[in-house]
């Protein structure tokens, strides 16, 4: 199994750049990210689906299982790789069960405990999204939840994959990788931070200087 990186954004240009670098295996969106993108929901998702081959998570605002299933039917027409994001509620898990029986992929979102992750897997979720940053915000250690969920899922044959969400910095990604999480969904600014190290920049500069110096002494 390889660790996958999704981009947590609805900004098509950010996605394009990550795809070009081979670092975008999928995309996750939510109503806040769609608002930030400032375009019509359907238009943005259709644009994103054309840029990325992997799954694109789309989130609605329905509260009953019946309405969630209706929303899912509409969202599924927006692109071939659309995954339906469903909130971690009883109605949500009813919808997940029904959608998974119809072969529709789901991503259970707003997960903040291992017991919620267990319920999502039992409901047949394709993906589960525990939010690490928002747990850190209330003085918990978000990435401890990831280790816990991976341990629990490892005891069984659940096919549900863990998408670590609400990532705020590179250590969230490293801790997720240490725990063996299947996927990290990463804001573009955090993905950018993964690349850089000052010793790499200094090393390149020094090697270039030495190459030039050597070339000049050989003339
Ligand atoms: O995909 C949802 C999630 O990543 C939210 O992140 O930073 O709003 O907690 P944040």
Descriptive overview:
The protein is of the alpha/beta class and 219 residues long. Helix content is 53%, strand content 16%. The chain contains 11 helices and 8 strands. An 8-stranded parallel beta barrel has the order 1-2-3-4-5-6-7-8, surrounded by 8 helices. α4 (65-75) crosses α5 and α8 (142-154) packs parallel to α9 (170-179). The radius of gyration is 20 Å and the shape is globular. The termini are far apart. The structure holds SN-glycerol-3-phosphate. Residues 8, 28, 30, 131, 133-134, 165-166, 185 line the site of SN-glycerol-3-phosphate. SN-glycerol-3-phosphate binds at residues 8, 28, 30, 131, 133-134, 165-166, 185.
